[in-house]
Amino acid sequence: MSMEELSKTRSGSLGADRPDRLLAQPFSGWTYEDMNDAIDAFIKDSHLDDYAHYIRRGAFLAQSKHAFPRGSQRPDGLMLKDFERRYLRLEDSPRRIDKFKQPWRMYALVGLCSLAAAVQGWDETAVNGAQIYYREALGITGKDGWIGLVNSAPYLCCAFSCWLNYPLNRLLDRRGVIFVTCLISSFSCLGQAFAQTWRQLFAARFLLGLGIGPKSATIPIYTSEAAPANIRGALVMSWQIWTACGIMLGYIAGVVLAGVRNGSNDSICNHQAGNLLFYDCSLNWRLMLASPMVLPLAVAAYIYTLPESPRWLLMRAREGNRKKYEEAFLALCKLRHTKLQAGRDLFLMNYLIAGEEINMTQERPFRELFTLPRNRRALTASVILMFLQQFCGVNVTAYYSSTVLKDHAHYSDQAALLISMGFGIINFVFALPAVWTIDTFGRRNLLLATFPFMALFQILVAIGFLLPDLSSSQHILVVLGMYLFGIAYSPGEGPVPFVYSAESMPLYNRDFGMGIVTSINWFWNFFISITWPKFNTAFTTSGAFFWYAAWCVVGWFAILFFVPETKDRSLEELDRVFSQSTGENMRFGLEQLKWWVARYVLMKRGVKKPEILAPDEVPEEIIDMRGEGEYYPGLYDEVVDEEKDYGRGTSPT
């Protein structure tokens, strides 16, 4: 029986109303004969006879990590080598740092993807300092609508270009999309530097959105498909952390390049022939806008030195290009320590893709996002977080802090740029702890703990703008509130939305869900960017920051009632989490709020903390992984002591 036939059989046995069980519990209930049949069928289909030894042993490891316990002889004669055991023990080590001991090629891939993330952040904040100068140089000072349109142009394009991610990946593959979008980013940044009118600048920045949108959707997927499962969350989160790094670099570039001659001074340019860039030749803002162009060229130059996504190669192989099977295996060999691990992951990926194809044929994954209650709750929670990432007001600071500080707090150009740079540094530095806290403290808890402080610090900024213009207290409150807001935002609402959205969707329609929520994020990014200049005038600067503080309060209650925790949950447990009705989630949130008030406000001891899920039980429909047969009696029941010994400090090498 082929793997596809086994998958369909198992899908039916696990229940037609729970198709995700096939993906959440691979090889559950498979007998030794089932596994052998599937392995033989896969090797025959893939023409990987030269690597059959690694794939066969890896397939049994994919079924159970205890398939080769030390001291037990398997009747089929398969066994592991000592160095293979050492690397497998690293995967399950209780010391978290051991999970980060990965091949250098894996970290080269993560490093280049992080560099591409920094490109995006730099693209976003290059305009922050530049707009102080280009408003006058291009003759749009006081024209809030045009300034907002120019600044928001990339995000308007991103709201639509994210939907090109699927066809672009079909045409160019993962690395090809990254290569092309990085070139677009580089050339459009250069084009911004040569703009002579605000319309030309708008066109160049709109084109920049073609480089930002598909890249922002492809790189997290590329990283997650290449990374080992045990550190996938931390590596995927590197996208947001290094975006924050790019934001910081954009601010730094604004400070460094501000001293270059200013073309708004007629005594310097004066429309004289031979002057650089003709008239309005201010080099400072032009160099600021062009400064991000170098990093994407470095990414484009080295992206093809890295292996393609193994999962993407497998999908191509299953569509008929059989040579891609070997490419996928060799790619995994570069991204894993041993060929055994590569064989295991290849076999497992192929099975999961087969399951996805069955589900996508039987159901309609795009429609399921809205019709199935479990998926709809996950989509709702993800949309809430993406919306709040924009309406907490962080990008007002990211895009407009320099002009706000200059025009409304009466800072000099240089001081406004330096203060904005400080915010960028804080945004990056305080995002780093989230690598650890997001998996220990939890996604939901991070958000609930930081949103009240975000509201408080936005109020602090608003009060600062209410004080008399020449008061030193105004300066202190505005800058202090801005910096403290960055400290509260960076470890919570900064990285959590993208991580949460990626893990909350079922595997078989995750691409569709991520496309929707990413597009929503960019749309509200555009909305905030284009409306701020007029919004600032109509509401006053103080009123605008009070408005975003109010949204932080609203967001806290939305998270409390509609965003369940996903920390430390496997796929099947996440299915249980999002299967809880919205009413149950709201009741739990209310009980959690009552418990917090009783415990920390009224200081009552012994108050029982509410839990939304009952203690873990093995669902009846889940078949034991040992299978139905008696081929290896007691094999998986044996207590494996080597992991315990390793946890006490035994060296893995």
UniProtKB/TrEMBL annotation:
Keyword terms: Membrane, Transmembrane, Transmembrane helix, Transport
InterPro entries for this protein: MFS_dom, MFS_sugar_transport-like, MFS_trans_sf, Myo-inositol_Transporter, Sugar/inositol_transpt
GO CC terms of this entry: membrane
Compartmental location: Membrane
UniProt-annotated stretches for the region Disordered: 1-20
Gene3D superfamilies, per the entry: MFS general substrate transporter like domains
TM stretches of this protein: 145-164, 176-195, 201-222, 234-257, 378-400, 415-438, 445-467, 473-491, 512-532, 544-563
Domain (Major facilitator superfamily (MFS) profile): residue spans on this chain: 109-567
UniProt topology in membrane: Multi-pass membrane protein
Predominant location category: membrane
An MF annotation (GO) of this entry: transmembrane transporter activity
GO biological process: myo-inositol transport; polyol transmembrane transport
A Pfam family reported for this protein in Swiss-Prot or TrEMBL: Sugar_tr
Top-rank taxon: Eukaryota
Family matches, as PANTHER family: PROTON MYO-INOSITOL COTRANSPORTER, SUGAR TRANSPORTER, PUTATIVE (AFU_ORTHOLOGUE AFUA_7G05830)-RELATED
Designated name of the protein: Major facilitator superfamily (MFS) profile domain-containing protein
Organism listed in the record: Lophiotrema nucula
Organismal lineage: Eukaryota, Fungi, Dikarya, Ascomycota, Pezizomycotina
